[in-house]
Structure formats: structure tokens, C-alpha cells
Amino acid sequence: MTLLDFARPFVGKVAERPGSQQNPFILWCHEFTSLKATDDETPWCSAWLNMLCALLGRPRSDSAAAISWGVIGAPRPLSEALPGDDICVFKRTGGHHVAIFLRYNGARITVIGGNQSNNVTVADFPRADLLHVRRLL
């Protein structure tokens, strides 16, 4: 099973809860990082990816910081990125983001990731914001 196969069922099913409520699934994902955050407001894209990788026996960062994925697995040029077990690390306002590669459409990269609009979603990111593509096999 690829990382992408495992991730797809979470799309539209995992989201932060409003106010002081917490999503227990997101809190469980945080347990796969050294930070072990106790709320679903703490950025959780890396926690979600760490959970997926731990359950699939893939390399993982153990960190809540998305940028930590920039050294995990093997580097790949974007032109060779494949949906399945490749991830992308992006710069974004206030920090970084990590998600699973789906496709590259010229100026945009489509990924599946956690903490995208406070949910697990499919989203596009600018190619200009890409920092790393890594293969997690």
C-alpha cells in the first residue's frame, strides 16, 4: 500500500473542531511527534504525515515541524515526482507545510495533506513555494 492509498480515505473526514473542542484523531496524530501537542489548533500537517508513515513502516521525521521532512527519505527532482510515496515541503506564511504529492500542473502542485484549511484535503500550492520533494521508500 502506498502512502497515497492510505491517505485518500482521510480526505474530508478529518477536521479541526470549533472553539475549545478538540478532534481526538488530530490529538492522536500529535502523539507521533516529539512535541505531542494537546490541541487541534497546533499545526498538524507533519503530525498527520508522521502517523501515516509510522503505521505504514515508512521513514518519518518524529517532528511537528514540516521543514523536518526536508531530510527524510531520498531527494527527487519535481520532474521525477510520482504520486504514491513522494512528499512535498513548501514554504508558507508563518512557517512550512508538508503533504503527499499528487501531480504537477505547471505553476501549481496538487497534494493531499493535513491542516490544509484546517482539514485533510486535496489542495494546490504554488510551484514557487516548493522547497523539497522527497521519496519515502
Task: Using brief descriptors, characterize the structure shown.
globular; alpha+beta; endopeptidase fold (from Nostoc punctiforme)
Write the layout of secondary structure elements.
Elements: H1 3-7, H2 24-30, H3 45-56, E1 74-75, E2 86-92, E3 95-104, E4 108-116, E5 119-126, E6 130-135
Q: Which fold name corresponds to the CATH topology? A: endopeptidase fold (from Nostoc punctiforme)
* Total beta-strand segments: 6
Please summarize the sheet with the most strands.
6 strands, antiparallel
Q: In the CATH classification, which architecture applies?
A: Alpha-Beta Complex
Into which percentage range does the β-strand content fall? 25-35%
> Could you say which structural class the secondary elements and strand pairing correspond to?
alpha+beta
How far apart are the termini?
11 Å
- In DSSP terms, counting alpha (H) and pi (I) runs of 4 or more, how many helices? 3
Tell me the Rg in angstroms: 14 Å
Helix and strand succession?
Answer: HHHEEEEEE
CATH level 1 name = Alpha Beta
Helix content: 10-25%
Query: Are there runs of 5+ residues with pLDDT below 50, and where?
Result: none
Mean pLDDT: 97
Number of domains: 1
General description of the model:
The protein is an alpha+beta fold. The protein has a single domain (3-135), classed as endopeptidase fold (from Nostoc punctiforme) (Alpha-Beta Complex), CATH 3.90.1720. The chain is 18% helix and 31% strand. It has 3 helices and 6 strands, in the order αααββββββ. It has helices spanning 3-7, 24-30, 45-56, and strands spanning 74-75, 86-92, 95-104, 108-116, 119-126, 130-135. β3 (95-104) and β4 form a beta hairpin. α2 (24-30) packs across α3. It is globular. The model has no long low-confidence stretch (mean pLDDT 97).
